[in-house]
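An example makes the point: we let one protein speak, the chain in one-letter code, the fold tokenised, and here it is:
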Amino acid sequence: MQKTILTALLIASLVAFNSCKKETPTEPITTTPVDATVQVDTVAAKKAIEAEKETLSKPYNEQEDAQAKLNELIAKAKLEGKNVFVQAGGNWCIWCLRFNDFVQKNSELKSVVDANYLYYHLNYSTKNKNKVVFAKYAPDAKGLGYPFFFVINSEGVVINIFGSGDLESGKSYDAQKVKQMFLDNAPKK
């Protein structure tokens, strides 16, 4: 009896073992080759961005004491009846540099900005993340991407925080949307 049970267990084990063997595919496994032109295009795009960055001004100052500068601008804004427009980003960010260039070279936008704001570029970089300033003025700005903006009134209170994505148009910005954003956040006179 024991011999029969052991034999049955041995046969059951062999059947179970054989059924667990991995199947070998009958057709060879093929892989899709990576398109080399995609890699070249990515490299070319990065080079084009770096070349474009070289042509744009670098308004962000990594060494600046951002809180001291904002305190100065808020005091000046109070005297002049303006708001402080803060563009958060860095000289590493092509969209940040493009926005600055776009505003500075568009006379209509520059006129609206100069009449209503003191403009500040708040640096964020590996050398200076300005964590305390970002935590104080824009704690809810996570996920907006760069650049993002916030407006501080003459009392030092943040009245709006918003991203730049909705203002983009192609590789630049939409002048009408940017103008409206500046007008919507201007001090009420």
